[in-house]
Design brief:
2 domains; EC 5.3.1.23; isomerase; 18 strands; Four Helix Bundle (Hemerythrin (Met), subunit A); 4-stranded mixed sheet; NagB/RpiA_transferase-like; Rossmann fold; alpha/beta; 367 residues
Amino acid sequence: MRIEGKAFTTIWLGDDAASIHVIDQTRLPHKFEIVTISNVAEAARAIADMQVRGAPLIGVTAAYGVALAMRADPSDGNLDKACAILAATRPTAVNLKWAIESTRRRLSGLPPNERGPVAYAHAAAIADEDVALCEAIGEHGLALIEAAAARKGGERVNILTHCNAGWLATVDWGTATAPIYKAHEKGVPLHVWVDETRPRNQGASLTAWELNQHGVPHTIVIDNAGGHLMQHGDVDLVIVGTDRTTASGDVCNKIGTYLKALAAKDNGVPFYVAAPSPSIDFTMDDGVAETPIETRSPQEITHITGRAADGRIETVCLVPLGSAAHNPAFDVTPARLVTGLITERGVIAASRDALARAFPDRAAKPQ
């Protein structure tokens, strides 16, 4: 996608053909900085500290992390160590495990001297596949937006999204934003309601930033405004991303997604989830009972960072000293509240049968 008119992906190989470069998402929207990752420890830290975030991008970064480890030491012991270090960074996004295990399987049968080049090639293939999956999701989701525009006689389509499932969360295009970008480029009149997405404000800081860079009309709203907007007919459809979708169609996404789904159901607003197949976990059935929900630092709630009037970036405390804070990072939306899953193979029902039909290879041999 574009940053000040220049094409970027979120992750790319350095000129030395060894290190990788990523956009430091903890610095946005106030600063655009590129971070160089040179070893597996730095890759793990970038994931854990959310310099890179979003389930698809986490997976790609982990694959490159294994490649960096194999370049330094391609032994069996170091392969196991690197995979363990990366797997421990963030528990909820299933793409992390998927990418690590895919890379491990690709390397395990190879002699050590071949592992480095093959690992880099495999990571690049995962990255390229992610772009293709997101663009396909964009094409299938475009039809939903065009249908909404047709129902409104060509009037502006209002789309609500939550968190950042944009190109910053993937390699390019994004998941939930891919249909939006496709529609915008095709000239479909649209407008995006961007949830701020407390406590890290990925909507206000990241989604709004990338929509602004791409020229897509949007408005930032507080997280609790979604139901109000729906009650007044100001939302035509909701499109969100997913960090893990179960075999039965339950969807784990950024905390607050469940409340948006409840409001959408109550107001008859279609609620869609952009779900690339690597985010589908066919080993899991009950999302609420089984999904590991990451609990992050209370300081993400109690403090906030922003730009002061004089341009300095400052962090301030928002709450009374001594007040406790609890920070679950994700929640689960049951399949019954999901209108449809926008996958690379089409828009399907959020159900076991539909997922098994769409992805028979994955459903038959869950990884």
